[in-house]
Design brief:
- The chain is α+β, with helices and mostly antiparallel strands and 372 residues long.
- The chain is built from 9 helices and 17 strands.
- The strands form 3 sheets. It has an 8-stranded mixed sheet with strand order 1-2-12-3-13-16-14-15, with helices on both faces. Strands 5-4-9-6-7-8 form a 6-stranded antiparallel sheet, with no helix packed on it.
- Strand 4 and strand 5 form a beta hairpin.
- The longest helix is centred in the middle third of the chain and has 16 residues.
- The chain starts with 15 loop residues before the first helix and ends in a 16-residue tail after the last helix.
């Protein structure tokens, strides 16, 4: 997929906080629909070359960074892809009908500006709908449906659309730029899961571990955890941690009893997600995170989630099973173009993993040479 914002060389920044902000900004502003993660892979590759022992792309599109140690294998997974759209049909007058890729709440899409990643280069478009001024009263009360929306790129005919290099299957992503808010909070698109990607990049740059660490930047998580399934089977790790985002219950419209997580109080370790239908974390993995946080004074929260799942749900069922958990950054308004995180939570998550990986969980290794 052609990126509307080409990868740029990282600049030298005065401290770790500003370096992290620059990295997260570039990751958020870049475009990587599920199955079209190439722009994100290139940022990761640029950041990690020279900092890891091996860096390779597998056949599905996962990017794997390796820090070599003994026979005990730890897999850290962070998905690169973002939700978006895909052109499904070009109307005679040049309007584009589309299919959602990943989980969208339709009202979030209305009135957005998008990049259509055409074969001849990216094309700006806007998401149009029928104006409320010409709707009947009953029509106004009906929930907005994705099939009622269309993309307007300014073309006057289907022939003009074809000349732009747009056809069925062309990827589409939201046009939204990273910005800083008050109190070291930031907003942008695709923090689900570019926040996790930034966290994993920083961990792989800093980690010193007796174990062999596989940092896996996975593809196609938003459409079925696909990259996690194939990479965990290939790598056959002894344990795994997925890095992602999770929903806090600290803003209007949601209550702490429904999402008992707060921004600014540290990263979140998953005990279970989807009411246990997804991941049930291995107790040794929870102890490892809890004990590390206590030993180093790192704030941490624990969560029993009722919503969606992460790469860990696929990884922990690989082969005969992989003890796993998730380390998440609280993120408001996920699956929208204006997600919000607190930089302190992201930094605490980086520190927690770096410190944890100096040791390992009390898990019996599968291979000779590793020690629990």
């Amino acid at each position: 997929m052609t990126d509307a914002n080409p990868v740029t060389t990282p600049v030298t920044l005065p401290n770790d906080r500003e370096r992290l902000v620059d990295l997260l900004s570039r990751l958020s502003n870049a475009h990587g629909l599920s199955g079209y993660e190439g722009s994100i892979r290139e940022i990761v590759r640029t950041e990690l070359e020279g900092h890891v022992d091996e860096l390779f792309e597998d056949r599905l599109g996962n990017l794997v960074a390796v820090r070599c140690g003994d026979d005990f294998r730890v897999m850290l997974a962070s998905h690169m892809d973002e939700i978006g759209l895909m052109v499904r049909f070009v109307e005679e007058k040049g309007f584009l009908r589309f299919a959602p890729i990943g989980g969208w709440y339709p009202p979030m899409l209305a009135g957005q500006r998008v990049w259509v990643h055409a074969g001849n280069g990216p094309v700006l478009g806007v998401l149009g709908t029928k104006p409320p001024h010409v709707m009947g009263e009953e029509e106004k009360k009906s929930p907005l449906k994705i099939e009622e929306m269309f993309i307007d790129v300014g073309a006057r005919s289907a022939d003009e659309v074809r000349d732009l290099g747009i056809a069925p299957g062309t990827p589409v992503t939201i046009d939204r730029q990273f910005c800083r808010l008050a109190n070291d909070r930031v907003s942008g698109k695709a923090f689900d899961n570019r926040a996790g990607v930034a966290l994993l990049i920083e961990v792989m740059r800093r980690v010193s571990s007796p174990s062999t660490i596989y940092g896996v930047f996975t593809c196609q998580e938003e459409v079925g955890l696909k990259g996690a399934k194939t990479s965990s089977f290939a790598l056959d790790p002894d344990c795994a941690i997925a890095t992602d985002v999770t929903i806090p219950g600290d803003h209007p419209g949601v209550q702490l009893k429904d999402a008992p997580i707060e921004m600014g109080k540290g990263p979140v370790v998953s005990i279970a997600d989807a009411n246990g239908r997804g991941l049930l974390a291995h107790p040794a993995m929870l102890d490892w995170m809890r004990e590390t946080a206590a030993a180093h004074g790192i704030p941490v929260q624990f969560e029993v989630g009722s919503g969606g799942t992460t790469d860990a749900s696929a990884i922990h069922l690989s082969r005969e099973g992989v003890p796993s958990t998730v380390l998440s950054t609280p993120a408001r308004y996920i699956h929208s173009p204006v997600e919000v995180i607190d930089l302190a939570d992201l930094e605490a998550g980086i520190r927690l993993l770096v410190e944890a990986l100096k040791g390992r969980p009390r898990i019996q290794p599968r291979r000779a040479g590793g020690s629990a």
